[in-house]
Each structure stands twice: as C-alpha cells, then as structure tokens.
C-alpha cells in the first residue's frame, strides 16, 4: 500500500467514528449549577426532642444552611400543642407566628413565608404544651426552603 492509500484509509476510519463521539455528551459537565438543583427542595434545619417539663425550646440553625424563603415543621413520636414559634434571623430581627394548635404525631405544620427575599435563620423558638398520651416526648423537626 502506498502512503496516499494509508492516509486515505486512516481518514475514512476516523470519519466513521467521529459521529459516534459527537452523539454522547460528556459524563461530567464543566459547569454545574448546584443551587438550582436543590432550589425547590425542603432542607432539614434540625430536630429537637421537646422537654416534658419546659414549655419553650430553641432549635439552633447555623448559617451554613444558607438563606431561606419558607419554613415548616414536622411533629413525630408524640402529639404536642404548639402555641407559637419565633424565628430569629442572623441580623437580629424576629418573626413571631401565633399557631395555638394541636399537632398529632406524624403531622406537618403549614408552610410559613419569611419576610424579605431570603433570610438566614439563627434559631427557632418553639412555645408549646406537651400532651401526655404515654408515647413519650415529641420530636419537632424544622425544614427550610431556599
């Protein structure tokens, strides 16, 4: 085979494989917009096992979780009567929400919108009254939405 035939054969073989490579996107894109992926997901801010003797508990939230536009909470293990919650923001401002409602175990609160665009939460204060039904202490879990 002469040099011209070898070169043409190599080019033809390469041209046969190029369309196959062009059809498959790369496995790892260079730019991933991670916040957009979790933008609409509820993120756990923390849980607190309520004290049967106290009537107020604080759930600390770190700035690592970021800024949120909405919050809600879930009650597990035992029922609880929630009087109110107060959300304390990183800048010292607060939002007090009167609730005054019984939450059986396994239930969620409604979704509460936070004032402003996005807020960094420092802590959430729960004012409650325990409901003794023999199931032990209630566990309150707070969730935030970015």
UniProtKB/TrEMBL annotation:
Q: Which UniProt keywords apply?
A: Signal
KW Signal (keyword) present: yes
Signal sequence, start to end: 1-22
The organism's place on the tree of life at top rank: Bacteria
Q: What is this protein called?
A: DUF2541 family protein
Q: What is the lineage of its organism?
A: Bacteria, Pseudomonadati, Bacteroidota, Flavobacteriia, Flavobacteriales
